[in-house]
Amino acid sequence: MNVPDVHKKDHESPFSQKVPYHFPEDGVIVIGAGHFGKRAADMLCARQHPRFWVVDKDERALGRISGPISERILAEGVSFLTDHADLLPLSAIIVPALPIHLAFEWLRKALKESFLHRLVKVPEQIKPLLPHTWEGSEGSLLVSYADFRCPDDCPEPADHCTVTGKMRGKPMYELLGDTALPGFRAHIVRSRQLAAGVGGYSVGDLKRLIERVESGGDSKWLVGTACKCHGVISALEVKRKMR
Fold first, then answer.
1. Tell me, what's the pLDDT at 1?
2. Whether residue 206 sits in one domain with residue 229
3. What pLDDT sits at residue 6?
């Protein structure tokens, strides 16, 4: 698809720049139109999902998304989710396809104005408690049962790895949720598979995250997103503003 130069003064985007209509209960929103976002869109189209949107700030990336999708929306992903989360049904599914910890970045932007927060590096003492870890951006930690790149079409079986055939043990979201560090509270958002290699969580899951953090008062939090095999953990300290 040829996409017009976005820098031209007379350019009019062929993509929506706001929510065009009521989002359905069974809908999916893919945040990001890069490699993983395009693959998610292709998989959803192949499964004939009734309705989904793709959101990205890069018009050329959106232009590479094809198939019978409901809407391509030109917007920055975290800001779009922050601005529209209260307008979306709790059952709507978010597919994170950006190179950031989307649920965590959404939390930071969506916290009430009565709260202050600062990023905290995930403590080193958590690493020996987890199978494999890598440093992520802004102090986050990537975790996995695998020390290799998993195939894109992994069906995420319940109890074993499709590559090694070995039993997995606790699902990663459960392992992270059970990992306790002194001085930190934890909340893990579970990513559920929609198609092979494509996972997401509901708007309701995000609402439960922010409700728990805001009700916790002055606290340090480990916030994670994980499926059965992989995850990411970020940390922040939250304090109520002095009145």
1. 35
2. yes
3. 32
Residues 189, 192, 160, 231, CA torsion sign = negative
As a whole number of angstroms, the distance between CA 120 and CA 136 comes to 13
What are the counts of helices (DSSP H) followed by strands (DSSP E) for the chain? 6, 12
pLDDT at 191: 96
Q: Please state, for a pLDDT cut of 90, what percent of the chain lies above it.
A: 60
Strand pairing report for 230-240 and 115-120:
antiparallel
Tokens for 143?
């975790």
Residue 35 CB partners (closer than 8 Å, separation 6+): none
pLDDT at residue 2, rounded to an integer: 38
The pLDDT tens digits for 50-70 are 678 999 999 999 999 887 777
For residues 1 and 135, which has the higher predicted lDDT (pLDDT)? 135
Please give the Cα distance from 135 to 143 (Å, whole number): 9
Domain boundary among 36, 70, 99: 99
| Residues 45 and 126 both lie in one domain | no
Torsions phi, psi of 228, nearest 5?
A: -75, -25
**CA 170 – CA 189 distance, rounded (Å):** 15
Residue 10 three-state SS? coil
Instruction: Give the domain-ending residue among 79, 99, 119.
Output: 99
Contacts of 4 (CB under 8 A, 6+ apart): 11, 14
Cα separation, 135 vs 110, in Å, equals 25
Radius of gyration of the chain (CA): 19
- Range(s) of the domain holding residue 197: 101-243
Q: What is the pLDDT of residue 4?
A: 33
pTM of the shown model: 0.87
Q: 189: which 2 tokens?
A: 């958002």
